[in-house]
User: Which sequence fits this backbone?
């Protein structure tokens, strides 16, 4: 039984017919050019574009040989074979016994010592988790996740074995259960990382902020787009900033200034209940109501990064992603105003509720960049309030999520996760178009303008009657709807 759906006699007969199908043979080539000839029993998921995407991500992970890896939902064993070919020590599992036999057979065929177990995470616990995950923690956990929703009443029903590869039949969600497992100290060692492939037909864009809310850094590291609209995303997850110091103070002049003067390691976070000299862009003062998040992070050291407007936009966009993930939040309730302001919409209209500020300092050979972030939980005119649209969000919960979000952008302990911002570039353009619609029309240097484009440094281009113009002075850009 699966919710309102029953696996009935006709479905059972169809499942038997599936099992009587003739096995197929196919070849799969790894990103390094190695070819595996695979025998595909009935009901076992064959390597496809999502398999290739996960393999490409693993290939760029630059992990050493003897890496301990676990593949969940191994299917034919293609990914496990590739991982073993890299010199990794591999454990695999699948809830489909045909897939277990298939992976075991392929490992034996190619001479790899892969431990293969039956089982996996799900709504029903079949024995102890060690039954399918072994008795150790792993450097890498990888899972090409099921993504289809259960069929509606009256729609065709897949058999249980094929559902194992294709359908997330769990009311809680397999992805959420997976996060709960690693948050509970299972599967992943403290310095390990997980790679999952998700579809926009399933958990999709919610996967990254859901991980932040569990305290994990998460970032899209690969994508595959299909003509019919499906988008596959490979996501890396890890525990953020392992060496960071975390401090909270009742009062500071400025959290940014405090971290610029300190010699704290990457990812260190300082927050304050009150800032007596809070800073905004271009030296302006940042004034917050009595209940607000005021925090700063060390995001780069020793010249490892040059910050730009793009970094401000990325942080603002990621904060908006996080806020929209909370229950009851509507994406139309938030607006990212170029270059660094977050607005919230209430019954009284649009009001600023947050801001992003990067500052840098070089002292001798010590160069550091800090990120300052302010978010008003409660507002008073002219400020906006997050509690107007997110009444249940707590300060400590939001701070933990923001810490993970910041790590997703700046934590160099997972270097391949920092190489690409292109997966967010189109989203940023959409956000600026939304901002123009909500907060505009735009007027630049006393001329009516329209958003035209965004360059790779995050600089804004607008179109005027004379043509396209680069906005080189944000203070000369007026959002006339405010």
Assistant:
């Amino acid at each position: 039984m699966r919710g309102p759906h029953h696996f009935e006699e006709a479905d059972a007969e169809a499942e038997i017919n599936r099992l009587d199908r003739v096995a197929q043979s196919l070849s799969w080539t790894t990103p390094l050019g190695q070819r595996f000839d695979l025998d595909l029993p009935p009901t076992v998921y064959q390597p496809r574009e999502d398999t290739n995407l996960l393999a490409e991500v693993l290939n760029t992970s630059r992990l050493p040989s003897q890496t301990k890896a676990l593949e969940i939902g191994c299917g034919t064993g293609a990914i496990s074979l590739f991982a073993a070919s890299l010199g990794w020590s591999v454990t695999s599992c699948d809830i489909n016994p045909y897939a277990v036999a298939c992976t075991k057979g392929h490992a034996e065929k190619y001479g790899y010592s892969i431990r293969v177990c039956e089982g996996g995470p799900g709504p029903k616990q079949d024995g102890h988790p060690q039954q399918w995950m072994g008795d150790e923690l792993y450097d890498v956990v990888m899972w090409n996740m099921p993504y289809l929703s259960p069929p509606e009443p009256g729609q065709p029903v897949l058999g249980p074995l094929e559902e194992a590869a294709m359908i997330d039949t769990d009311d809680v969600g397999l992805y959420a259960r997976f996060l709960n497992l690693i948050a509970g100290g299972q599967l992943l060692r403290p310095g390990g990382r997980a790679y999952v492939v998700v579809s926009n037909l399933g958990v999709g864009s919610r996967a990254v902020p859901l991980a932040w809310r569990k305290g994990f850094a998460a970032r899209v590291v690969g994508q595959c787009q299909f003509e019919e609209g499906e988008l596959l995303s490979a996501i890396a997850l890890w525990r953020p900033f392992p060496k960071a110091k975390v401090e909270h103070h009742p009062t500071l002049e400025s959290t940014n200034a405090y971290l610029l003067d300190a010699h704290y390691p990457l990812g260190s976070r300082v927050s304050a209940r009150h800032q007596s000299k809070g800073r905004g862009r271009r030296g302006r003062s940042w004034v917050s109501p009595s209940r607000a998040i005021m925090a700063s992070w060390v995001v780069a050291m020793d010249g490892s990064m040059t910050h730009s407007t793009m970094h401000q936009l990325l942080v603002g966009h990621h904060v908006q992603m996080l806020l929209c993930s909370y229950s009851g939040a509507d994406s139309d309730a938030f607006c990212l105003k170029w270059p660094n302001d977050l607005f919230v919409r209430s019954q009284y209209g649009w009001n600023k509720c947050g801001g992003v500020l990067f500052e840098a300092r070089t002292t001798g050979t010590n160069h550091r960049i800090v990120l300052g972030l302010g978010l008003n939980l409660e507002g008073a005119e002219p400020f906006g309030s997050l509690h107007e649209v997110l009444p249940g969000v707590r300060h400590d919960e939001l701070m933990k999520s923001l810490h993970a979000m910041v790590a997703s952008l700046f934590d160099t302990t997972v270097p391949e996760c920092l190489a690409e911002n292109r997966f967010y570039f189109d989203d940023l353009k959409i956000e600026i178009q939304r901002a123009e619609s909500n907060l505009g029309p735009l007027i630049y240097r006393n001329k009516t303008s329209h958003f035209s484009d965004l360059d790779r440094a995050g600089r804004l281009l607008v179109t005027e009657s004379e043509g396209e113009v680069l906005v080189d002075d944000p203070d000369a850009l007026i959002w006339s709807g405010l």
